[in-house]
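Q: Is it fine to ask for two folds in a single conversation?
A: Yes, each is treated on its own. Send the first.
Q: Here.
A: Result:
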Amino acid sequence: MFLIQGGFVMRKGKTRSLLTLVLGMTVLLSACGTESGGNAATNAAGAAGGNSASPEEKVQIKYWYAYGDKTEEAKQELVKRFNESQDKIEVVAEYQGNYNDLHAKVQAAFAANDAPAVSDLEISSTGTFARYGMITDLTALAEQDKDQLQMDDFNPGLMGNAYVDGKLYGLPFMRSTPIMYMNVTMLEEAGLDPAGPKTWDEFEEYGKVLKAKGKTAMTMPADIWYYEGLVAQSGGQVLTDDGKAGLFNSPEGVAPVEFWKKLASQGIIKIPVGDEAGATADKDWANQASAFRFGSTAGVAGAIEISKGNNFEFTTAFMPANKSYGVPTGGCQLVITSKLSDEEKAAAWEFLKFMTTTESTTYQSKHTGYLPTRISALESEELQSLYKEYPQYKVAVDQLAYARPRPMETAYPEVAKIVKSAIEKTLLDPKVSVQDAMDEANEKANALLSK
């Protein structure tokens, strides 16, 4: 039986009614908020530089973040470094689950006037949070500190989701693309080229050989993030240029689902569903039940440990191409919530700048596998040495040449759920036409996008 999971970066698990209620409350509350970005910009240096608080009167702010394991380790370490770097601000970092959990909690806390000052924000949700007035426009702050911040040092391929309606709302933090993880040992044992498949057709041929050897090519949740990549590889996009309509039922939008359905029906890939689908895919790859998996570049450091512990060799590669290569970006940026005091906003801005320095970027990229968001970090001797020793880290950096930002229309989180449901439907039921399912999904998407 085939199933599907919400995916690495998609919002999932919360009802639409709750989201609508919370967002509706935030619209009302935002009109009463204390939005004073200009004063915060003026006071930023004072809050961290010694003019507004004594060591006994630290400004305390909360930072809410998503995901555990090595990602959490890196975030906690960076918070520790920031707190030790000065004596005016204390950041309290608190884990809130996955992105979906985090977003729901921030929305609820914002409605209750108790939101954290700083939060991770998955990139495709930036438009929603910005347009509902939940996060601060950082444009004036960035301009004020342009010499220190050096915005042009951020990788241009990762900036597409930082701006909403021409205004800066987030600084790139732990950013990613999906890449393909390959068990080299399994491929060699099956007599296959360990360089791996470069195209969809080659992937299918690899899968047939592995199946004949009693192996599964890939266990893969039917993830919207991956779907966006395969649409790009087919020469298409998921929304029209103005974001007012979906293109999920276009030939390029249908092609990935047809491909998945074909491979699943042949027993070449396994598509689990449910909340544990992603964990199932990871487990199958770690236990060498499947040779390939799609996953975030953030998993490279963990995969190195897994491969050593389970005694197999692995490498990473671009997601295989159809008409061309193509991949969405993902991960999070750091944002400052609105309705803060000037003092809190100034402290939050100092924290954002610290967390995105070259040094911080280099550390978290090396510790996790997330992309280096700054060019200076990418070019640093530390990361260049890492890439020579572990070329698996470098693949996602090279793949950025084919990267696209994720849609940020306010309705897109709900649209993504509709499309995901349609993909599940056609994969679970052999009788369901892919074109019919995507036609229906696109009609529902258009009703939301056109509002």
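Q: Second one now.
A: Result:
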Amino acid sequence: MTTPLVDPAIANPQTVLGALDFAGVAVFAATGALAAARERHDLVTFAFFAAITGVGGGTLRDLLIGVPVFWVQDWRYIAACLIAAVAIWLLGYRPWRFRLLLWLDALGLCAYGVLGAAKAEAAGVAPLICIVMGALTACFGGVVRDLLAGQPSILLRREITVSAALLAATLFVGMRALGLDPWPAAIAASAAGFALRAGALVWGWSLPAFPGRAS
């Protein structure tokens, strides 16, 4: 029997894991606020986009695995989303901000792929479903954000994004199945996923398209 990544710490911002969880929500919320900034929306829309993006993936995960929805149990997650939205609003226009958020999003994407898989593991679900939950946690909020902003969904781009989260979640679940302790597995899996996403950002890596001509 494997030892799950300490699930109670996810709801405790005094622990390292809890701090990472809050930071990840804030980073994803900031990307949602940036989507609102592109369309020059008002502050209320900033907050809405931030909240949807920040907690969307974790909400779907918790509903599917049958555990209490994390932000309903702890109001500070929504507070983190609102703070991120206000921060982006106050930051105003900066030429470098979108590039910076791409890298922060890359970090959050891979870390959340692992965190989602770890929470599913703690709930006792099958390894394959843990991988799916990791990818959903990392990506679903961004899918909703893109739909609301009228942008092409990350699922419809060949750019490597979802693949990085899948890699991180898969490696974590695989290493845990082999008996590796949670923290080394989490660090190694997150690093591998981030390396894949970084390659896409720096060198333009993308997945191959289906061969043939479009009809």
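Q: Anything structural to flag on that second result?
A: Two points. The radius of gyration is 17 Å. Residues 1-14 have pLDDT under 50 and may be disordered.
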